[in-house]
Amino acid sequence: MNENELIKLILQGESDKFRIFVEKYRQMVFRTCMGFVHNKEDADDLTQEVFIQAYRSLPDFKMKSAFSTWLYRIAVNASLNKVRRSGRISFIDRIESLFGSDSPGAGQLFDTDDPENIIIKKEHSQWLQRALDSLPEKQRTAIVLSKYDDLSQKEIAEIMKTSEGAVEALLHRAKKNLREKLSGRIPKKNK
Any idea what the Cα angle at residue 164 is, between residues 163 and 165, rounded to 5°? Predict the structure, then answer.
């Protein structure tokens, strides 16, 4: 049974079948939410909200795109709304995945977890959080979908309802903006 057939059954009253979607897409939605809120409890709450909203909005789903694309849009919008409502987000250490191994500041920052390094690592995480928070919403969305969910530019374009070229430009500008904001903040590893 394909997803459109499953949706028709759900809309005809077999609401228990929605559990199939929850089981299939729960991790995907959680990762997306986590990419914006960076807090497990908030991401868990948002994941539940996304599925509740998706279930309630299922009659409005036109089946013109993949169900997963539609669900991503709901997850991104719910996450952005949460960020707007809270006025702040915290960021976890994802420096390597944001910049790649060829960028300044990439690679292992600390060899040990002694107290001094833990404090320094926390400060760097806060700097990165502020830099990510300062990105325009579309750039932040593109980075999260690319780096947290490992989506292709084509998939991100569908979710953001834009072209692949626009996504490529957003990712490029986001990485450039982050590099500029963080330049000089992350010390190079002493050898």
Answer: 90
